[in-house]
Every structure is written in C-alpha cells, then in structure tokens.
Amino acid sequence: xxxxxxxxxxxxxxxxxxxxxxxxxxxxxxxxxxxxxxxxxxxxxxxxxxxxxxxxxxxxxxxxxxxxxxxxxxxxxxxxxxxxxxxxxxxxxxxxxxxxxxxxxxxxxxxxxxxxxxxxxxxxxxxxxxxxxxxxxxxxxx
Length: 142
Known about the structure:
By secondary structure, the chain is α+β, with helices and mostly antiparallel strands. The protein is 31% helix and 18% strand.
C-alpha cells in the first residue's frame, strides 16, 4: 500500500496551514465545507488520524468518522430542509479518490434534483460561510 503523504490538502487544513469553513470538530474528527460542492450544504468529514482511506484507517478512526458522519447527515438534512442525504467515500484513484486522506462526503438531496457535476469550480467563500452557519445552527438543535 502507498504511504500516507502528509502534504495532502486535508493534512494541511488539519495543521492550520490552509483555511477551511469548519462546521464541527471533536477530538478525532473535523467536518468542513467542500469548496467545490456538488450540492448546497456539501460537507466533508475528515479524521484527524493520518490515513489514506478506508483501507488503511485504524478502527478507532473509522468509528469516529462514522459517528461524525451520522451527526452531520442529520444536521445537513435539517439545515437545508432536505428530503434525503447522500453519503460517499472513495478509495484509491481507481475508486474515484482524489485527495489521499480519508474523507466522507455528506450532501443534502431533493427528489428529482441531480448533484451538480464536479467541474473544479470553487464556490464563493461567502456562500460557503453562510451554508456553514446554517449547519452549525442545525447542530445546536440536535
């Protein structure tokens, strides 16, 4: 298995070297807004433990990510009055993984509304900040 690269974007965010819109943080995980969202309210759940993906993550990191993902799925659904939630996790390049630090995508969904394509276009920071605040408020109510 390929070694973990500590220069990946999520490792830099975790070290405070890159900015992010954090919506939730505990001792083991952080949830941030995806800067190239496929839906309004698209968040990423990231373990603080350095691991490339599900295949090399220690059991305690997987448990923490699963629990935070559930919490964020509930908050995102409530914050955007969504009808459902899509949760995605990719492993290795052939599996669609682009950033090699484990992370889980959580996206609010509505019947008949497709996810936006992943074009590489970044969302405006004020939109991300507004969406992050909606999710933080929803977390308080849970």
